[in-house]
Amino acid sequence: MPAFSTAALAEACAEVRATHHVIRDERDGRLGLGREGEWTDRPGAGAWPVLASLPPLYPEWLGDRSFVEVHGLRFPYVAGAMANGIATVRLVSELARNGFLGFFGAAGLSLPRVEAAVDRLQRDLGSVLPWGVNLIHSPAEPALEDAVADLFIRRGVRCVEASAFMALTPAIVRYAASGLSRDASGRIQRRHRVVAKISREEVARRFLEPPPVAMLAALREAGLLTAGEAELAAQLPLAEDITVEADSGGHTDNRPLTALLPTIAHLRDAITAARGYARPIRIGAAGGLGTPAAISAAFALGAAYVQTGSINQACVESGLGERGRAMLAQAEMADVIMAPAADMFEMGVDVQVLRRGSLFAVRARKLYELYRAWPSLEAIPASEREKVERDILRQDFDQAWRSTQAFWMGRDPAQVERAHDPKHRMALVFRSYLGLSSRWAIDGVDERAADFQIWCGPAMGAFNAWTRGSFLEVPANRSVVQVARNLMEGAAVITRAQQLRSFGLAIPASGFDFRPRPLA
Q: Which of 20, 107, 202, 338 could make an S-S bridge to 136, C-beta 3.0–4.6 Å?
């Protein structure tokens, strides 16, 4: 029978793969839903008047079809890179095999570690399944950024997530432009795809415009681009996928998605018209996406794809230690705080981290305040020095410098040379704590649990609230594929409920409440 009751309408919202017809009961004017074959056989009367028909709605269809086609995906869904290998090879591989795109978290890792991950991804996934690697802006280590970009070009990494860029660098421009060519029809073909994660208009503009002519010329003169590649790069946007990052874990400007995404979309449209670009530039949404309602809202804003972050860190495939994942599973929406970033410490850049169960943010803030206030480690007052050595570093300044020096001699000896400047030496020592705090969380070092640095945005708390009482409440059940499938399925259900409500049906609140369940 047709669905007229609120319970029946709510059930119909979940049947997203069915064709539904909006009908009206002429006796009382009520609107309802009917499927093929059940709304044409009312005894003693003609067919129910049909006001509208809704075809099937699949989760795969929620975003821009060109995004899934270009990247070889089933779903318009991306799992963003989480630094220090927290977005593991295993996580990226599981997503790839199920039609999603994941980026390995290369930021913060040594070049050999990144190369080993590329080796394994190429061995496990090849060039057919979708995968990518993070290329992060590293203002404190430009040589490493250049080396990572060079590795990706040499090893044939076809897609990168460009993150934390405040300005374009030769590394990202070289990667994007390398391999540009024209096909037989004259159409420009890209060998490398850049998915640029941004949260500011001025940064978005740099990725939406062609690379600076002077930078292309310098790369050409250095033999890092051919004349043909430089010429073609000057005709294209640096990136054709722009991920708008709202209030997220890690690096974030804490912008609201509803303000940021339309602004960047308008900027995209203006630049596309001015430049006469022939190919579409897609705008994706990230930050705060931890529930089906949030995913559905992002698509309603016009997002071509969605990208999740914090919630994947809590999944069993992530590189975060078991204790850290358990801490994330207890987080509520307000259990986050801003703290100094290890990679941009001297610049005063913050990252958003988990506050509940950790003193990291308070201790990292104290180190930054001391860095700003004093010219060297030796100048810090004895009372302050004692507290830092005892409670934070757990070693004296001399010991801390020796271990820091040994680390940088193996990674970037130029940093040790610069440490003749006592201010820089202080920054390196304090940054060592910030860097190790993430490693302690990854390795599950119990005696340093109070110092765990776990990147986390408010989406984590929303996700925990949504999964409460379901199989996904249990940390051991949180596989990255089940999380992705449930978010996308739920987003389709909520989108269908909104469609039906816009046709005048009285959809109850339960029609918008998709609950997690194991999905094949």
A: 107
